[in-house]
Design a protein that fits this description.
Keywords: Signal. InterPro entries: Bact_Solute-Bind_Prot2 (IPR050555), Peripla_BP_I (IPR028082), SBP_2_dom (IPR025997). The chain has 2 domains: about 170 residues, Response regulator (Rossmann fold, 3-Layer(aba) Sandwich), CATH 3.40.50.2300; about 130 residues, Response regulator (Rossmann fold, 3-Layer(aba) Sandwich), CATH 3.40.50.2300. It has 13 helices and 12 strands. The strands form 2 sheets. A 6-stranded parallel sheet has the order 2-1-3-4-5-11, with helices on both faces. Strands 7-6-8-9-10-12 form a 6-stranded mixed sheet, sandwiched between helices. It is globular. The protein starts with a helix and ends in a 5-residue tail after the last helix. About 45% of the residues are buried.
Length: about 325
């Protein structure tokens, strides 16, 4: 009963955020925030996050600058965080794509007294160690485990996890969670595909050729899902796999769900990962208030049963 009430209250609070923004905009003080992501320019999944940033900007009367390494290079991302801190913004929002590479830059911003919220990639534990106020995202291990349990129910025995960000601890947690949900060791089931679509296509093809008994596939986002979908279409082999699940959504993934190639996509609600941190940092800057706990924006599962509604909002709110 108590848990149900809490869920209702949390839902009401999230639904009320646009109204909160409308009331706060009357007290706008020109706050400026910098959002730093690890995504390369080619990753269109982040357009939904950017839409959340844009709407928060408009609702709150603040300025939000989106910055990222054009090729997804994490060392460059660390330099971007350092540059953001040097500009003395009201707050910084950043992903934690590689804790070891980003640690010094993020801790440096915190040491300067700049409030930081971590989002999307990284874990709540890493966020706390960095000195951030909170983490907004989905618990990646739990999301992966949920996918693994779905694959187990479908009868999967051997799987491939296509990991485009293998140095990212959160990505590895997705694969590990899947393996644990399936009840098998991760072992050699995780493939470092890289972010180049042609390279990913060829690596997945080589793996599946070398391991013809593979009957389950997990991809970690459009960067790895789209080349894998293309491969299965090109070879006419989608029927060989009892379960193909991916993280996140784009038009290619939506079509693959409708065509029965992908069983489900894990939704972490990227719009909220853009909108919420701006709202919360603005309230923190103006009133000194911040939620006591991290915010989980996922996971949810998008299937053929609900893809119609989600697809209409894809790229903007989903």
């Amino acid at each position: 009963m108590k848990a149900g009430l809490i869920r209702v209250l949390l839902t009401a609070a999230v639904c009320a955020l646009p109204l909160i923004g409308a009331s706060l905009s009357a007290r706008a003080e020109g706050e400026r925030f910098v959002f730093v992501s690890h995504a390369p320019d080619s990753d269109s999944w982040w357009n939904t996050v950017k839409n959340g940033l844009k709407n928060a900007e408009k609702d709150l009367g603040v300025k939000v600058e989106y910055r990222n390494p054009s090729t997804g290079d994490i060392a460059e991302m660390a330099r971007i965080v350092e540059q953001a801190a040097a500009s003395n913004p009201t707050g910084i929002i950043t992903t934690v794509a590689d804790y070891g590479v980003l640690e010094a830059a993020v801790k440096g911003a915190v040491a300067k007294g700049i409030p930081v919220i971590t989002v999307n990639s990284g874990t709540a534990e890493e966020s706390k160690k960095l000195g951030a106020l909170m983490h907004i995202g989905q618990p990646e291990y739990d999301a992966g485990k949920g996918a693994g349990e779905r694959a187990k129910a479908a009868g999967v025995a051997r799987f491939l996890c296509v990991n485009e960000y293998i140095t990212n601890n959160a990505s590895v947690q997705r694969c590990q969670g899947y393996a644990d949900g399936l009840g098998v060791p991760l072992g050699d089931h995780m493939l470092d595909s890289g972010t180049d679509p042609i390279e990913a296509y060829n690596k997945v093809k080589a793996y599946l050729t070398a391991h013809p008994d593979t009957d389950g596939i997990l991809t970690l986002g459009p960067t790895s899902a789209d080349p894998t979908i293309k491969l299965l279409r090109d070879t006419g082999s989608s029927g060989n796999y009892k379960s193909f699940i991916t993280f996140d959504l784009d038009s290619g993934i939506s079509t693959a769900i409708k065509d029965g190639i992908i069983e489900s996509a894990i939704d972490q609600q990227p719009y909220l990962q853009g909108y919420l941190p701006v709202v919360l940092l603005t309230e923190y800057a103006r009133y000194g208030v911040i939620p006591a706990n991290n915010v989980n924006t996922g996971p949810g599962f998008i299937t053929k049963a609900n893809i119609g509604l989600v697809e209409r909002l894809a790229g903007e709110y989903r």
